[in-house]
Amino acid sequence: MYPAKFDYLAPESLEETLSILAEHGSDVKILAGGQSLIPMMKLRFARPATLVDVNRLPDLDKIERVNGHISIGALVRHNDVVKSDLITDHNALMASAAPWVADPIVRNLGTVCGSVAHHDPEGDWASVMLALGAEVVATSKEGHEHFHPGADGDRLSGGSRVVPIESFLVDMFTTSLHPSEMITEIRVPTYERGGGSYQKLERKVGDYATVGVAAHLELDADDKISKAGLALTSVAPSNMKVTEAEAMLVGEEPSEALFAEAGNIASRACDPTSDVRGSADYKRHVVDVFTRRGLSDALEVAQGGQG
Amino acid sequence: MNITVTANGAEHTADVEPRRLLVDFIRSTLKLTGTHIGCDTTSCGVCTVLLDGTPVKSCTMFAVQANGRSITTVEGLKQNGALSPIQEAFKEHHGLQCGFCTPAMMLVGSALIEENPDPSEDEVRWAISGNLCRCTGYVNIVKSIRAAAAATKEGAST
């Protein structure tokens, strides 16, 4: 299968890339890992007139801890996350999700930021980022041209628009990224005492999740839950943050009964469809089990002092 | 667009259309037909080659992306005209039946051994989980990769 013809540009600097984006607008697509974009082009679901290959840009392949967050650069591959000591030590949810994204070979090329930008409604990273309360850094040539103070929690940082993940993800395959913008980074907040877990049921390696649950917990000095994140994959039209369960968990002392209540809420809140991967009832049941299991695992990590 | 790619140590320059897939560039332009095309949808892994030492699916990459980079295909595995430990092990342990997935399995196996000289059975199975064997000959593929790791280690220590 062959994609339609396109012009190929391989800039060597971010400035050059942003100029190309500003000039070409919606006819241009950014090529990072290409593990979703190229298959879509081969099926001709995507027919960009121009591809701008950002793989030669410097400094975007870093995972760094800066100013209260962990920064995931635009060229960080899924496998870089799998292998990162910083992630292993400081973000249990990301560490547990990364090995379940796609398959080992796709993980060598596919990127975290690209996956969020693509926003496949059954992608794993969007759920992880929703549970963690991540922010997306969207950079454009003018920096501020798409910035609307107060709108959806946007703010400016160093000439880039910083967008909370919840308002970044608009709908399936749709984000608030403007064609002239590029995701240069995703910021994940750091925490003192916390933990997380990604539970994924898949028929085989490389398949989409039948059900995925991203769970994240933070504890205060009294061992009460100070922050909770819960998001679901593949059981609603798009990745779904279960805010009702999150709100219910905060301020409480963690217990099996509490997690069972969260499981109840999540399985009621989701909206799965019956398909080749399982019936809606079955998926709803798995959401319940995975929510309880994910929160228990998250608690175990948090109590282990991993921060 | 003119690109220069180092394939199995030899430099090649060619004029390619941007939409040319890396796998077709390898098979048709470089005439290295050991790299196979299976599903053409990033699922089966038979088109796997090493890009600067890292396994990638060459059906899901454009040839222009490999400009200035180095690729290794199954034809590049042999060492000084002799079979490499991974090739020897696949032969010895019957690691292939129909042979269609074999080039990719050997490349993934050799990249794994490079990174992890003593992989457990689980680690081997995890590493090849992006590669399908339609004969389902996984038992002997895993055996072959582990044997190659042992032979590589032995070779290095003598």
- Main pleated sheet of chain A: 6 strands, antiparallel
Strand order in the largest sheet of chain B: 2-1-5-3-4
Q: Point out poorly predicted stretches of chain A.
A: none
Q: Oligomerization state of this entry?
A: heterodimer
The mean pLDDT of chain B is: 97
Order of helices and strands of chain B: EEHEEEHHHH
Question: How does the major sheet of chain B shape up?
Answer: 5 strands, mixed
Strand order, biggest sheet of chain A? 4-5-11-6-8-7
Specify the CATH homologous superfamily of the largest domain in chain B.
Answer: [2Fe-2S]-binding domain
Strand content of chain A: 15-25%
Number of strands of chain A: 15
Low-confidence stretches of chain B: none
**CATH architectural label of the largest domain in chain B:** Orthogonal Bundle
**Count of the domains of chain B:** 2
Measured on Cα atoms, how large is the radius of gyration of chain A?
Answer: 19 Å
| Helix/strand order of chain A | EHEHEEEHHHHHEEEHEEEEEEEHHH
Question: Which terms summarize this structure?
Answer:
heterodimer, A: 307 residues, alpha+beta, Uridine Diphospho-n-acetylenolpyruvylglucosamine Reductase, domain 2, Uridine Diphospho-n-acetylenolpyruvylglucosamine Reductase, domain 3, Enolase-like, domain 1, six-stranded antiparallel beta sheet, 33% helix, globular, B: 158 residues, Ubiquitin-like (UB roll), DNA polymerase, domain 1, 2 domains, five-stranded mixed beta sheet, 5 helices
